[in-house]
Amino acid sequence: MRRALLLPLLGLMACQPTPPPTPLAAQEIPSGFAQPQPAAPALTGAWWAGFGAPELAPLVAQALERNTDLAQAAARMRQADARARQAGAALLPTVGLNANVTNNFGTANGGLISETDFSAGPAASYELDFWGKNRDAALSAQALARASAADRQTVALTVSTATANAYFNLLALRERLSSARAGLAAANDMLGLVQRRVNAGFAAAADLIQEQANVAAIQTQLPALEQQELEARTALAILLGRAPEGFDVKAASLDGIAAPVVAAGLPSDLLRRRPDIVAAEANLASAHADLDAARVAILPDITLTAQAGLQSPALNAAVETLGGTGFGGNIAAALVQTIFDGGRIAAKTDEVKAREEELLAQYRGAAFSAFGDVENALGNLNHAAAQQQAAENQLTQAQRLLNAAQNKYRAGAADFLVVVDAQRTLYTARDQLAQLRLARFSASVALFKALGGGWDAGQLAQK
User: Which terminus in the chain has less CB density within 10 A, N or C?
Assistant: First the structure.
């Protein structure tokens, strides 16, 4: 009697869904970013258009269409969507068509007797979701589908930013190659001048050897830069989902490209603008639905079945059998209750609970990492701009220094080592400026990635 009263009470308690955990308290979300940010428009989806590079937008579009990692993510998203539809189907009855023929035979009164029984007609079964187990399973699958869609957006954001970085890296390497070749040409010109001065007796042979060593040093840099340019071009082609053979871009330097200025907004905005955070939130929601389903697994399953149609004999019963063919049917209800399972259901509930706690920590970690990503990107962007400005000034001074040293050497008023040092300083300044320009573009791309690329969680509803 006690058990009969306790079971409905447990059922009513289990039917009540538990509130989901709160991933972040309000005081854990910063009110603003510590790094300074400009007063600028908010980030838009097509952030790559702001660089003003004509080739970049078509390259990103091609990558988003053909990248193999993105194709895999899209397939995983379709799989998750299909699983969500499968889980939702459990909330509806199953209807089918049953048909069977049975031939019974035996001997009686010295003769062979046979009888053919058959039935044909529709059949339906329905599991009463009295405790909400199937509903929770459907909610879990739907949350996983949202997480998969957000994961695909994370891959898309990664692909688009990687494409932009690969393109800028390729142009920076070409710029460095051009600078090295220009430096080699200038060194060869200087080598000719030194050769003539040595031949005329106005310079020592050591000057010629020094300049020959300088030319050789620059020449050793070219193969390494050419190989890096090749690898950068190959990496960009692979991002576009194509073979590297025959692939090339027209631009030869970073000239004409400018990093766009955008506002980072508020840290709280990242919770819906970062697809990785949205995916973590959806995974947490799925785990919570799984926990609700695990808690009611101890309660009985109730299934209704019905079948109707033509059959022969018209009624086959233990007491009376009616021969002939006629309409017949049956309706049944089944209740299955686990009495003893060795603690399996309780252990499963503990497992799902621990899984929810894991995903809760994962969400918190993703949120804090997102805040840190934006802080680092803002700081890196500010520092890269300052470094580039200093490098541009250094290049101007290095060019002036070389011009002055060469003029004094031609006039016989300066040692040749001064010229060699000035050449090296100028070459280093040019190469460093190209790398710092690349660093500034990379910092800008990193900020766009940290901000979610202009995406918003509301776009998931539009899929």
Answer: N
